[in-house]
Design brief:
The chain is an alpha+beta fold. It folds into 2 domains: 242 residues, Naphthalene 1,2-dioxygenase Alpha Subunit, Chain A, domain 1 (Alpha-Beta Complex); 100 residues, 3-layer Sandwich (Rieske Iron-sulfur Protein), CATH 2.102.10. 23% of the residues lie in helices and 28% in strands. The strands form 4 sheets. The chain has a 7-stranded antiparallel sheet, with no helix packed on it.
Length: 374
């Protein structure tokens, strides 16, 4: 892959993209409601009737395993008078609204409505919960509110094969643990922070010596989709968090809010972000094991990650978000180094390009500041 850049410095995005509610509303419809969003791992809904609910801003969503063991996703709203159908996660053989007991089968078809027989021409068969697109990607379930969007492999070409190369048994992994927290920042503030390691040697000393080898670390666009690949050899330090054998480190960030990450040796984990408002986003940190159990080594890594990298980033992004509201903030030049390396913000310039393309401010694949050629 070659990287083209202009001879002029590339400035960071204006603060308005991180703080202006009107722009956030545009992003809601043009980014979040048109892209694939991580919902859950398939092992959390493995049996008939298993369900899990989530929210994407003001849209409530329900993912369920139907009577034929197929994954289904619906808008989590009763077609009677708009009440939310289910909460949290669990198992149901039928979906019954807690407001007036309108009841649907696991395929979203209305099957009963109290006293509906008294209404002339009331056709139960004509009423269904609207479906949402759902796909299984290596065991990770994604949903997309856009009925016309390309499928996952079209959006992120080559990622499936790259992950399988690192972790051939990833599809047999099971959900083991997840924690989450509201980060108190704009979603892009959090995603930017995740997708650059320019700050790692200063802010993440433990990660830099416990997991990765900084001399080999690189973040760059991957393939022809909106993907950023983080790659590194395993740490060479004597302070490694665990005994590392097998694969290198890699993380595949899938625009706009999901990342599948493989720690050295095939330790599978995820980050994903659910925007809450212009000034807040919830980050979810997940871990997956062969049998869904948390081994002593996995527990050690979970704890070490939470105490260091995860908590360090939380403080950083909250401080950045406050700074973005400063009257005195002027976006400076990004450190864009086509040669790669850890001290680099090439990935940030790419994120900004993708956002502005999504908002219609740049033509897709135009000759803008940064582009990639395979």
């Amino acid at each position: 892959m070659s990287i083209k850049t202009t001879s002029e410095p590339i400035l960071g995005l204006s603060a308005k993209y991180f703080t202006d509610d009107q722009i956030h509303q545009q992003i809601k419809y043009k980014v979040f409601f048109r892209t694939w969003q991580f919902a859950c791992h398939e092992s959390r809904i493995r049996n008939k009737g298993d369900y899990l609910t989530l929210s994407l801003l003001d849209q409530d969503i329900l993912v369920v395993r139907d009577a034929k063991m197929q994954l289904q996703a619906f808008y989590n709203v009763c077609q009677h008078r708009g009440h939310r159908l289910l909460e949290g996660q669990g198992n149901k053989q039928r979906i019954s609204c807690p407001y007036h007991a309108w009841t649907y089968d696991l395929g979203g078809q209305l099957i009963a409505a109290p006293n509906s027989g008294s209404v002339s021409n009331f056709d139960v068969s004509s009423i269904c919960i609207p479906k949402i697109r759902v796909e299984n990607f290596l065991g990770f379930i994604f949903i997309n509110l856009d009925e016309q969007a390309p499928d996952l492999d079209e959006c992120y070409p080559g990622v499936r094969a790259a992950i399988l190369d690192l972790c051939p048994d990833i599809e047999s992994r099971k959900f083991a643990f997840e924690h989450h927290i509201n980060e108190g920042c704009n979603w892009m503030t959090a995603v930017e922070n995740y997708n650059e390691c320019y700050h790692c040697k200063l802010a993440h000393a433990e990660f830099s010596k416990g997991i990765i080898d900084p001399s080999s670390y690189r973040i760059a666009p991957f393939g022809r989709g909106r993907v950023l690949a983080h790659t590194s050899r395993p740490t060479q330090s004597s302070e490694a968090w665990y005994e590392m054998q097998g694969s290198d480190y890699a993380s595949y960030y899938l625009w706009p809010t999901s990342s599948i990450q493989i720690y050295p040796g095939g330790m599978v984990n995820t980050y994903y972000w659910r925007p809450l408002s212009v000034d807040d986003v919830c980050v979810y940190r997940g871990w997956y094991s062969e049998d869904g159990e948390i081994t002593e080594t996995l527990q050690k890594v979970i704890d070490r990650d939470y105490e260091t990298t995860f908590s360090e980033d939380l403080k950083l992004v909250r401080n950045v978000q406050r700074g973005l509201h400063s009257i005195g903030y002027r976006p400076g030049p990004l450190i864009v180094d086509p040669a790669g390396g850890i001290d680099n913000e090439l990935s940030i310039s790419v994120l900004h390009q993708w956002l502005r393309e999504s908002l219609g401010e740049l033509q897709t694949n135009s000759n803008s500041n940064v582009s990639t050629d395979p």
